[in-house]
Specification:
transferase, membrane, 2 strands, glycosyltransferase, transmembrane, 2 domains, mainly alpha, transmembrane helix, 3 helices
């Protein structure tokens, strides 16, 4: 048994390192290459965006505004029927201070009065507020 030698504790880490090296080193090299590629992509993107922003600021370019709409044409035969029905809802909660302003703005639209419905959504706990709402609406629409 003199010719046989067994690995000692001091040689064991060196052997495991030699066994892992063929696996770990190529994997780490691949990861470095992937990270380098991603860094180059980020750099190219930043340079591209810098060029685009410089071009926009230099030539003061603005995006075109394209609106696809047509004005409503007056049709004598249809009259107000050409306008769609509109429902305006005004949510309130015992608002004594701003109810006139809110209702006035809703009623001030240039829309045919027979094609608009204005609803004041409030369940007032104070009965005087309900009377104020109704009297204000009657003044505006003159029922």
């Amino acid at each position: 048994m003199e010719g046989l030698s067994f690995p000692t504790r001091s040689r064991a880490p060196a052997m495991t390192l030699q066994a892992k090296a063929p696996l770990i080193v190529p994997l780490l090299k691949l990861m470095v290459i992937v990270c380098l590629g991603m860094s180059i992509m980020l750099f190219v993107e930043r340079v591209y965006m810098g060029i685009v922003i410089s071009f926009i600021k230099l030539f003061k370019r603005r995006p075109e505004k394209r609106y696809k709409w047509e004005t409503m044409k007056e049709d004598v035969e249809l009259g107000n029927e050409a306008y769609p029905m509109v429902l305006v809802q005004i949510p309130m909660n015992n608002e004594k201070e701003v109810y006139q302003l809110s209702i006035g703005v809703a009623c001030g639209h240039s829309w045919p009065s027979d094609r608009i419905i204005i609803q004041v959504l409030d369940d007032p706990t104070d009965p005087t507020i309900k009377v104020r709402y109704q009297s204000h609406l009657q003044k505006l629409y003159k029922y």
